[in-house]
Design brief:
18 helices; 481 residues
């Protein structure tokens, strides 16, 4: 799940909220409409693509970047195993003048996959300034101002995206480090969510360049089913805490669900999502305690709008949720599916579809005595409710016959980390979780903490969630060491 920081939700249909929701929905429909087929002739689009530097988000960001930040575009091979392969550009930006000591230099990796660094910069830059830390931000290949993901037309071509994952991102970062500070330099590695996976990968690919690592919001697990079960369970925990802090949420959700009936569906092509499952898409906001206040206000306002003018409110919501995506976000959606399938499905790989896994996990939770219908949000309830026009529930998720054949499995084994940590015992690895993280809950850290033991320093924060990487003082104190 992405580690991009959602904006607060000050009004009913704020652009920031709806863009976030639309991006999530676009990705789900990509999984269904593109990857759900066993064969395809072409995927999109055939249009002339603009240069990554000319795309609107990049141009706007460069115009707003602080004047005391230097930035650059570094040419690197698309395929690091083949240095003569096609060259792409990786965008970096930093306040550094190239004379800082290694101890001050911190490279930050944001969440994703397929997310840029720009929203993280807006939050982290002032915090780093307060502590005289010199952050280096990198738009991971495929994102932001870096070269965008290449166009693909067939399933075999999707395998190209395997060269755009965390292993390549670390090598890109190494090129940036050498360019800024010299080949023999080192720096601190700071990662959030998918960026924390990159912080783990750094110890596989380039441990000699690390002073210390600081990974928040991601942990390694062998069993994908167990990971998903713990994630679903913590959505219940987070939902209960959300209601405890903002009691009006219960009444808002009741009103919304009374007004979103089985006849109120979100449709695109042959897929359909109805009533409760529409609201389950909003579970994304449970991961960020920092924005619960705004989310509570959104739910209250939307509930009132439904009561005042049900049809108008529904049309606004449906229009935003089912809005068309552009070519660039569609390629990013495909790349994200490839990269997450390759890197984030555990060390014991299974080719089961998300529907298969969700169905098993929900049945197991029910057999454990959980009444899932009472839960505020449940992402698996949404997944198993997808329906096509032939009434075959879940037929939209069919990764098994499409991606498995072409994409390598590239997990990060505990033994690789043990070897690197043992070799560089004076270089600490800090690992953090948040109690109310609905994406990567503390229970998913147990396996890594037990496997690596005293080789890492682990902390569960008791009041925060996926946003603790910027709100928890201890994270920043350790970065200063």
């Amino acid at each position: 799940m992405r580690g991009i920081i959602p904006e607060a939700v000050p009004v009913l249909f704020s652009a920031e909220l709806m863009l976030k929701i639309q991006n999530v929905f676009t990705l789900l429909f990509l999984a269904s409409s593109i990857l759900g087929c066993n064969q395809i002739e072409k995927i999109v689009f055939g249009k002339k693509r603009p240069d990554h530097k000319d795309l609107r988000p990049c141009g706007e960001f460069l115009a707003e970047l602080s004047a005391d930040y230097q930035h650059g575009f570094l040419a690197v091979p698309e395929d690091w195993d083949n240095p003569d392969s096609n060259k792409i550009e990786v965008f970096y930006y930093t306040k550094l003048g190239g004379t800082s000591s290694d101890q001050d230099n911190v490279v930050f990796f944001n969440g994703g996959p397929t997310g840029d660094s720009h929203s993280s910069y807006s939050v982290l830059e002032p915090l780093a300034d307060e502590r005289d830390l010199d952050l280096v931000f990198i738009d991971q290949r495929g994102t932001g101002c870096s070269t965008r993901y290449p166009a693909v037309e067939t399933y075999p071509e999707m395998a190209r995206y395997a060269k755009w994952g965390s292993r390549a991102i670390v090598k890109d970062a190494e090129a940036v480090r050498a360019h800024l500070f010299g080949e023999e330099s080192r720096w601190k590695v700071f990662g959030q969510s998918y960026g924390a996976l990159i912080a783990h990968r750094y110890w596989q690919v380039a441990p000699q360049s690390v002073i210390s690592s600081h990974a928040h919001g991601f942990a390694l697990m062998k069993e994908y089913d167990l990971w998903l079960k713990e994630r679903i369970l913590n959505q219940k925990v987070a939902g209960e805490e959300f209601v405890k802090r903002y009691p009006s949420v219960n009444d808002s959700m009741k009103k919304i669900r009374e007004n979103l009936t089985s006849l109120d569906c979100l449709e695109k092509e042959t897929e359909k999502l109805c009533d409760d499952e529409i609201m389950d898409m909003f579970f994304d906001y449970l991961g960020w305690t920092e924005h619960w206040s705004g989310f509570s206000y959104f739910l209250e306002t939307f509930a009132s709008a439904l009561e005042a003018d049900k049809e108008s409110a529904k049309k606004k919501l449906m229009a935003h949720l089912s809005g068309e995506s552009d070519d660039e976000s569609e390629y990013a959606g495909i790349a994200g599916l490839v990269i997450s399938t390759m890197e984030m499905r555990g060390t014991k790989y299974t080719s089961d579809t998300p529907l298969d896994t969700c169905t098993r996990v929900l049945k197991e939770l029910e057999s454990d005595g959980h009444n899932l219908s009472d839960w505020l949000f449940n992402e698996c309830r949404r997944n198993v409710s997808w329906k096509s026009t032939d009434n075959k529930s879940g037929s939209t998720y069919s990764l098994r016959n499409s991606l498995e054949e072409y994409i390598p499995h590239d997990p990060i084994p505990f033994d690789d980390l043990k070897d690197s940590f043992s070799q560089y015992q004076d270089r600490p690895f800090y690992l953090y979780s948040g109690k109310f993280d609905a994406y990567v809950p503390p229970a998913t850290f147990k396996e890594e903490v037990e496997a690596l033991g005293e080789l890492i320093q682990y902390k569960e924060f008791p009041t925060t969630a996926h946003g603790g990487f910027y709100t928890e003082t201890e994270v920043w104190e350790n970065l200063e060491k």
